[in-house]
Amino acid sequence: MNVPTMAEMMAQGKQPEVLFWVGAAGSYDDRAKKISRAFVKILHAANVNFAVLGTEESSTGDAAKRAGNEFLFQMQAIMNIEVLNGYEIKKIVTCDPHSFNTLKNEYPELGGKYEVYHHTQFIQNLIAEGRLKIDKNTLQGKRVTFHDPCYLGRANEVYESPRDLIRRLGVNLTEMKRNKRTALCCGAGGAQMFKDAEPGDKEVNVLRTEDALETQPEIIATGCPYCNTMMTDGIKFKEKEAEVKVQDIAELIAKANNLL
Amino acid sequence: MQYLPNIIFAIALIAGIGFFVINIRKLTRNIKLGKNINRTDNKPERWKNMIKIALGQSKMVRRPFSGLLHLIVYVGFIIINIEVLEIIVDGLLGTHRIFQGFLGDAFYGFLIGTFEILAALVFIAVILFWTRRNVANIKRFLSREMKGWPKNDGNFILYFEMVLMTLFLIMNASDTAFQQAGIGNPISQFIAPLFDGFSPETLHIIERTAWWIHILGILVFLNYLYYSKHLHILLAFPNTFFANLNPKGQFNNLASVTKEVKLMMDPDADPYATPAEGEEEAVPEKFGASEVTDLNWVQLLNAYTCTECGRCTSACPANLTGKKLSPRKIMMDTRDRLEEVGRNIDANGGTFKDDGKQLLNDYIQPEELWACTSCNACVEECPVNIDPLSIIMDMRRYLVMEKSAAPQELNAMMTNIENNGAPWQYNQQDRLNWAKED
Ligand code: SF4
Ligand code: SF4
């Protein structure tokens, strides 16, 4: 798979149309890596001239900040901003709502001002510009429910672009009882992903999986690598792996268009 | 002696309002114990929020049943003030139903008639509220933090409103002239027959008694506010005005940290250089919050505004899965501690004397703070735009940056970010491997 880096672009004296911010999960987590690859295939299919930072990318610092370590966050941010500004980046797209939120909202004050898109927004634009079409036939009629990532939904009020893309797949989109602004968190945010939960009577991801299962879905669509992990674990816990798949919207589109 | 009632009335009014003003002053002083934060940008947006959310109740009606009941009580409260104004003028001047004269029978009758209907509706709404709180076993009202005073406080308000509405209707029903005029008595005409056969003198005494208790009750209620969650009827307005306008996911960047980080990362900076003129800092700033005085004044205003409705808590994923965190409790603890600090200042001639307590540990436990997923459900849900999450985050910052007291796994995660640029233990040189694996 051809994934050019900014360093390579620079060497050729070229500037890409957009920087793909892969994020730590998208780079290292086995499940999330598939999402990164699906998205790259979509970018190729739409002839988008993009690049990644590769080994020059570092954690945005989101998890550190939300764990309370403002020092570490700002050190990460300032380092990343130096790299991004060095390459004169204007436009960024990412599959990770946490990176999306941090780059878009928290970096500007520290000197990093970019146009930042979540991949669902970016794909929506590609469709509007006529650069990409989604095949309605492959997944037609499948029952799909969508889990809103907190950092895309409530945090940035992006509720429609993922839904718009799912509808374009020709599937049967059903809403959970808690959706959009009342959606329940998957349990990963605020650095919870990296620690055991405090004592309680249930894990958050299990409760959220129950919300999803109530809609009797064949597919739970996600728009965040962490949500994906949490929901996948929830489905395993409920022993429903055979009936229900958890997939990122990028993966669904790549599949519909036979790109995988 | 004919002016005696007027004089007594004036004294009661001045005492009632005076005491209220003293408490409001205390309240503003306490709120100002918070750190400064600029919340006066983008005024048009702020006014819009206030009108929509505080005046227009837009977030209340998201729960249709309690929303509708609340709307009735709220509209009743706003409109009844016109009637209270008449009572005050009458009380001071010794007149009787002074507005009837210059508003004309038709309009005055329409107004009072509307109040009567609202009073009856409020009465019903209050009974339904009371049932919800005390009989219906609604989970939202049963949490740990709702035992004792918070529960009683909620009920007192309801009893108060019931009594005030009853007195208003009795006052009208026993006013013979008013009943005979037959204007604006759609409800009280059905109460009036209770007094059939009473002598005019007795009726007059009943009417006066109801009138006096009604207005004195209102003055008492006004002063009860300060001690109650009912303070929100006033503070919802400034609170929605000063609420955060940024995207909810955007957490503030601590300026004090930025300064140090820039210094650390600047190869030319001389850490031992003497600070430029006017830049010397006596005490290095404390990072995060362990005490109410470390919070900013908007967070403290939030604490006084909280109505303890628990909508935040009932949407909180941590709370829904049985963890100790309750965003409502975070707000109530903050207010309780702030009140305690305020009383301490009053008792010690204007300065705070260390009482060996603080918000962290004595009120809020780290276990509560670490359960938060920062999902913003509480912030979204709050009908008066309170931000419990910002307090949780500031306290986490204190735990991590001042106390190095993060849970062990989080320390490992942060070490990884520091050394490998990712929360996991992978080599940064492998960061592009995902692209080659297909
Ligand atoms: S942000 Fe934290 S406190 Fe608020 S609802 Fe979410 S988990 Fe609960
Ligand atoms: S913070 Fe808001 S939602 Fe929570 S109890 Fe207070 S008023 Fe209700």
Automatic annotation (TrEMBL), chain A:
Residues 28-103, 144-231 form the Cysteine-rich domain. InterPro entries: Cys_rich_dom, HdrC_iron-sulfur_subunit. Keywords: 4Fe-4S, Iron, Iron-sulfur, Metal-binding, Oxidoreductase. It comes from the Bacteria. This is (Fe-S)-binding protein. It comes from Polaribacter batillariae.
TrEMBL record, chain B:
SUPFAM superfamilies: alpha-helical ferredoxin, Respiratory nitrate reductase 1 gamma chain. It comes from Polaribacter batillariae. PANTHER family: IRON-SULFUR-BINDING OXIDOREDUCTASE FADF-RELATED, IRON-SULFUR-BINDING OXIDOREDUCTASE FADF-RELATED-RELATED. PROSITE patterns: 4FE4S_FER_1, 4FE4S_FER_2. The chain crosses the membrane at residues 6-24, 68-88, 108-131, 152-171, 209-227. InterPro entries: 4Fe4S_Fe-S-bd (IPR017896), 4Fe4S_Fe_S_CS (IPR017900), HdrC_iron-sulfur_subunit (IPR051460), Helical_ferredxn (IPR009051), NarG-like_sf (IPR036197). Residues 297-328, 360-394 form the 4Fe-4S ferredoxin-type domain. The keyword Nucleotide-binding does not apply. Keywords: 4Fe-4S, Iron, Iron-sulfur, Membrane, Metal-binding, Oxidoreductase, Transmembrane, Transmembrane helix. This is 4Fe-4S dicluster domain-containing protein.
